[in-house]
Amino acid sequence: MENEDVEGGMEDEFRSPGRKYRPVVAHDRAVLEMSSMDHGSSSNADASRMAKVGPREHSNANQAAVPANGNVNGSESQHKLELFGFDSLVNILGLKSMTAEQVVAPSSLSTEGDDGPHPYERPRVEEIKLGTMMGVFIPCLQSILGIIYYIRFTWIVGMAGIGESLMLVTLCGLCTFLTSISLSAIATNGAMKGGGPYYLIGRALGPEVGVSIGLCFFLGNAVAGALYVLGAVETFLKAVPAAGIFRETITHINGTRAVEPIESPSSHDLQIYGIVVTIVLCFIVFGGVKMINRVAPAFLIPVLFSLVCIFIGVLLARKDHPATGITGLSLKSFQDNWGPAYQLTNNAGIPDPKGEIYWNFNALVGLFFPAVTGIMAGSNRSASLKDTQRSIPVGTLAATLTTSAMYVISVVFFGAVATRDKLLTDRVADGHEPHIATLFTSFICIGCVVIGNLDLITPTVTMFFLLCYAGVNLSCFLLDLLDAPSWRPRWKFHHWSLSLLGALLCIVIMFLISWSFTVVSLALASLIYYYVSIKGKAGDWGDGFKSAYFQLALRSLRSLGANQVHPKNWYPIPLVFCRPWGKLPENVPCHPKLADFANCMKKKGRGMSIFVSILDGDYHEHAEAAKLACKQLSTYIDYKSCEGVAEIVVAPSMSEGFRGIVQTMGLGNLKPNIVVIRYPEIWRRENLTEIPVTFVGIINDCIVANKAVVIVKGLDEWPNMYQKQYGTIDLYWIVRDGGLMLLLSQLLLTKESFESCKIQVFCIAEEDSDAEELKADVKKFLYDLRMQAEVIVISMKSWDLQAEGGQPDESLEAFTAAQRRIGSYLGEMKSRAQELGTSLMADGKPVIVNEQQVEKFLYTTLKLNSTILRHSRMASVVLVSLPPPPVNHPAYFYMEYMDLLVQNVPRLLIVRGYRRDVVTLFT
């Protein structure tokens, strides 16, 4: 039964005065809340158009795309393949679309002449792709061999000694080596686009983590720019002291007069020259990054030449005109320089007992670590590589091992070639361009240059690089541990334990350097993550967290088992049946207030709701329409900020569809335990058999399937989160329901709209029973349940209407009208049975009607309705027990009972529990 069929031609009746129910229309407040929703796109329109194409037209369209001469065997081969359907054949277009390659879709499989282009020919790319050597190894080598090695490494050896310097190089080198292994594993697990660590981490840990760590990596590189600028200026001023505007001369070392005065560059010179150099570099970068990448390898030549000169100088030292403090390779110098000599220094790093800076091993880690960074240089050029899956691991690891070995050798040589004082006083050995981003980076770089102290900038660079490396290691650890079917890296020399060790090593090094810097770095990354998660555009990149959630869900489901959940661990899992029982606007897939009510059944929004709807018809004919409807319903759920999923089921009828849903929906103990439906307030104005039969059938199916039921009456007036309620929540506790009604009232109080309400529990008692004893027992029970509520006991003589006087006139009129309608319906059944010569039949099955029992049911519902109107007319919401449909009574009779029960109650929840407790008294 489609929504359009519910209303029929009765729209005028809804507008008649005196009616308590009105349909949901386009100008309702609840509908206007959803006016900004985007329920589809062009793809939805395409899907709906495809759904209209019949099987024959679809088959003909597929056959038309394949010409008769499209293969060697001609029509014979084509005939053999007809069984498989041409739209599913593996062809060159399908393979290239899987790899995201851009291909020209041909109009036919025929090829043109020699002068014409082949339809399957790939577009020719002008850009020259790089190999392992020039694309990864050389850039990594250039990045790793930074300024720290040239202007601080000998000083580090003098301060830490050979022993602890070797430990320092090993610690930092091991960190980057483990990160390189993780990087190699991730980079070889499929095709990689440009983006460097942002791309790698984002695809492994999600876009939010990728952006937060990627931005920190960018800040690290920006600050590193200032590091290299200051290092270059310091080297220049050391080589050409006359260029200094402000000069500083040191004549005392450790309180004693120095053998020779030491010229130290002034911090003001570093600031002035550094700003000038940064501005010049900014203009150069504006010329184009591609041009810089092409000429960058040429700058490696002087770097390699300088390394050769350094080692030649070490080997030939003291043989020709030795300098002061240079001993040449000497065992004595090696022994003298083995242990550390940590001490106070001034800002220039010169030993000074009155200096402001004290150096230790942790501080040297922060100073030296930038000398081992640069392993991302190859992955940053992934878009320019011929074979990323081979070049990145081979080139990165080769550069890491090469530089680490060179550092170890340098420690030994530097420690054995000079005295301690010489090492401590001589800190120098011998396309489309993002212009706005470049300018922003320049400002960051200039701001750090103004600091004018390389030793203060270096720890900041270290923190950001370590954070990035920790992200890479955690990405590989997560992917390796989950071992999803898609995790098939070509680089086999990796293990989750190595990645975990690399991540922990990064964190340990961060805290070794400075716990305050670490906290600030993590806080910055967290703020970026929070901002991106809120403001960023959602995207599914198949990150590792999705696999983690899947694995966690499986393990949790297995741990829950098939046994009943303990009441302390019971959560409501509502199955929200989206049958509107009325007409909805065309662009609204569900009643606008249904999600608001579903949220009220969760504590602080925690819990799962399953929104289901049923399409009548054949599944093969309505499959595409069901997918489109499911997408629209999911959009609605997301818009209403309700944790839930949408399901659309195609079934021959409403009853069969719901019966299948209530049996199969969910897994294990995560199956829905409450069915939420809207009360069909329009049933009397419509077909008198279809709605009652469907509604009563749903209730009976829930009872058989052992599902709790919550029927909402007055859903149009249900408050949203911004509409405060200040009345009471009244419970008419008639039958034992496992505490479900009490629990629902407590869940309502956790919502902002009902938090100012108070709970009243009405207990119905016979007059001859002890009302006070019942009240005391209920209050004790509520106290043990940690629930605050006022208990009210209502004593009644009997449910006989004539025994009680003073009934409201409107109730008596409703009772009389219900009696008259039931009598008329019963008379029609009897007449039909006499004509057919059969027993009484209703709803397609025989019925047995006890007229005295029918009248008793009417009395009962009338009495309860009168009691509710007397005590709870001003209540914010009323909860009452749901009476089960009497056996062998027509569905029409039950709807008359229910109508009399809900008469004139504006907002009512009719609740039926199931055969188990949902609350407990015990801890």
What would you note in describing this structure?
The chain has 923 residues and is α/β, with parallel strands linked by helices. Helix content is 52%, strand content 10%. The protein contains 34 helices and 16 strands. The strands form four sheets. A ten-stranded mixed beta sheet has the order 7-6-5-8-9-16-15-10-11-12, sandwiched between helices. A two-stranded antiparallel ribbon has the order 1-2. Strand 1 and strand 2 form a beta hairpin. The longest helix has 35 residues, at 153-187. Residues 1-22, 31-125 and 798-805 have low confidence and may be disordered.
Question: Strands, helices and their partners?
Answer:
Elements: H1 3-7, H2 11-14, H3 29-32, H4 42-52, H5 55-64, H6 75-81, H7 92-98, H8 132-144, H9 147-151, H10 153-187, H11 197-205, H12 207-239, E1 247-253, E2 256-265, H13 267-286, H14 289-295, H15 300-316, H16 331-336, E3 344-345, E4 357-358, H17 361-368, H18 377-380, H19 388-417, H20 420-425, H21 435-451, H22 454-482, H23 496-513, H24 515-535, H25 544-560, E5 574-577, H26 594-599, E6 609-616, H27 619-639, E7 644-651, H28 654-664, E8 674-678, H29 690-704, E9 708-713, E10 728-733, H30 740-749, E11 758-766, H31 771-784, E12 790-796, H32 809-836, E13 841-842, E14 845-846, H33 851-872, E15 877-881, H34 891-902, E16 908-912
